[in-house]
């Protein structure tokens, strides 16, 4: 399955309701899994972003739908990156002229 990395920033609403964040995170995991995905890792981080999530999803549509659903709640702003493994990268490089 494709791998996706979510870079998330809390909104004003999200920080105002920060005590609810752990429950929202668990609900997000359940939603991701209900759509056929698998959470591989989740971290609360310091710096430009507040959360980093790593997961697998069946396709881009599922990942995009999940990101939209999270953003629509108003607690975070999301950036989603599609990742490839080093093995997939090696296969792509082999095709270069």
Describe this structure in words.
This protein is an alpha+beta fold and 97 residues long. The protein has one domain: Lrp/AsnC effector binding domain/regulation of amino acid metabolism (RAM) domain (Alpha-Beta Plaits), CATH 3.30.70. Helix content is 42%, strand content 30%. It contains four helices and four strands.
In the CATH hierarchy, the third-tier topology is known as Alpha-Beta Plaits
- CATH architecture designation: 2-Layer Sandwich
User: What's the N-to-C terminus distance?
Assistant: 28 Å
CATH class bucket: Alpha Beta
Number of domains: 1
Shape: elongated
Uncertain stretches: none
The structural class is alpha+beta
Secondary-structure element pattern, one letter each: EHHEEHEH
Strand order of the largest sheet: 2-3-1-4
* Approximate helicity band: 40-55%
Integer-rounded radius of gyration = 15 Å
